[in-house]
Amino acid sequence: MARIALDAMGGDYAPTAPVGGALLALAELAPEHRIQLIGREADVEAAVEAALTGDYAALAPHRARLEIVDAPDVIAMADKPTAVMRRPLSSMAVGLRRHAEGHADAFLSAGNTGAQMAASVQILGLHEGLRRPAIGTIFPTAQQTVVVLDSGANVDCSPEELVHFARLGLVYAEDIMGRTNPAIGLLSIGEEPEKGNAVVKAAHQLLAQSRLHFVGNVEGRDVAAGTCDRGPFDVVVCDGFTGNVILKFYEGLAPMLIRMIATSVGADPKEMMQGLAHLDYSNYGGAPLLGVRGVSIIAHGSSSPRAIKNAVNVAIRAAESGLSEHIGRRLAAAASAA
Amino acid sequence: MARIALDAMGGDYAPTAPVGGALLALAELAPEHRIQLIGREADVEAAVEAALTGDYAALAPHRARLEIVDAPDVIAMADKPTAVMRRPLSSMAVGLRRHAEGHADAFLSAGNTGAQMAASVQILGLHEGLRRPAIGTIFPTAQQTVVVLDSGANVDCSPEELVHFARLGLVYAEDIMGRTNPAIGLLSIGEEPEKGNAVVKAAHQLLAQSRLHFVGNVEGRDVAAGTCDRGPFDVVVCDGFTGNVILKFYEGLAPMLIRMIATSVGADPKEMMQGLAHLDYSNYGGAPLLGVRGVSIIAHGSSSPRAIKNAVNVAIRAAESGLSEHIGRRLAAAASAA
Known about the structure:
The structure is a homodimer.
Chain A: E1 3-7, H1 16-28, E2 34-39, H2 41-53, E3 66-70, H3 91-100, E4 106-109, H4 113-124, E5 134-135, E6 137-139, E7 146-149, H5 159-175, E8 184-187, H6 198-209, E9 214-218, H7 220-225, E10 227-228, E11 231-232, E12 235-237, H8 240-265, H9 269-275, E13 287-290, E14 296-298, H10 305-321, H11 323-337
Helix pairs in contact in A: 1-10, 3-4, 5-6, 5-11
């Protein structure tokens, strides 16, 4: 049984998309799971009412597993990340506190990512040895999916932080992606250990000396392929600047290419998109903020109800698998081995 | 009239592809242009013979505008970049010396990029104020093409170097892409000036204070679109690590997506590729090594004869437009204004 605290006020289409996503999720989930919608009570009530008298009328039986938790304040997308610290009644702060205090097993938001990160660190805390959490994002590839991290939380990283990302990604690959002995690649600009910038070269040495299943450097084209000359990999380690650039590049490039191709072959881009569901981000739901003591799932600001539903699934998998506890244990084991 | 020194021994398909590309280029170029094939005389002779008795028989009339220049040594793809310094009889060193000494107007190679860069700097020299040259690569976008630089020559860059790249890219956009008052974007992870890593944030300040037509930060998805909220741009500035990662990511992702889409709609991937020629790298030919005193064009190692032909066109445009002289003047003007 998992209880998910869902930020009903977060995202471009709040509260409609979170409310719709919650209903879609409950309809598919085993009956013991619960969702708590955190937000302005009247607004959330109205959105639930609108959903159940509109498109989601068939989902009315699941209303009983939906709890509304009042949070009178809202963090806007444009607010500074630190704003959340001064606003304890915001849906983000209220939801994270519920999780920290044991009233929910995970928190999920499609709202202001910077604020969610800051509040998650403050309210949930970080595992020993970490300076900041990392965002792990799923990339569809020609082979299987890979998790790329950090994809935006840490812009300037030390070699040691890149090694932390490898450990965080490893547990993510095991617990969320179901991989055994996940293989780790280090994003660089050539496969040789001496290729890369100063931080990457130093990180390569540390990873090669670690007990991790390290396949060495992987290049941009390997990330698209999901494999390199030394075999497939599950985790791609990079600093949050590079990770965020390629994530957004992917997000922009895939639909652009699909549109161009559809036009050139005279097909309907929307239909073509549907045939390529495995390339659609919203299928992969939310990205866990890795390294915090608990489960804080970041959903894309433009999340549809379906994307929220998928993010709820990620939240449940993270909570039930014990992702955060596994990360804590692995970091502690690595620290005591060093 | 331009005389292009073409490394006949460089690239995965040498000497066949350079020889084929030279013939294809001459067939299209105005009759005053000349190509010098630099390489092991016997091997190059044999490749020319094979081409003219085989697939390129129809191009025999252009043989007269092809000169073979003997260079008994070859730099292999796997050689260390510095190897070229100790091998003055390699096709790369011989070709670059011909250009430096005024016997050719440009040099072009699909061989070892690191070696070409090192030898270009040593033999041609750099414009005042530069520490290293930059590679400018054309990216097809949803709008027009953009030039991304540096795409691999400089892995750790200072903010000042990123500003140099902006000036180099600006001249490239004017001279090679034919743009007027080119707009410059700085690759980052958010449009706000305070987004990015330490180097990018500092570079943003410098670019904002410069007289360049700076549109501000652009994100990964803007690069795919060729435009951002503040309008379209022509030049994307980034360090060579990030630039190389996204270049290779693009190179890997585009064919992968096309294959996946072709499979999903039951089309032939090869035919679909042909319909999308504007996404095909080989159409954009070579990437000039920007900042050297002269024209040194880097072609992809896997260049086909058609890709070499397109790279010859870039070399001619660079030589005839006075790209290198314009870069020298612009850097000098910026230095004296500072």
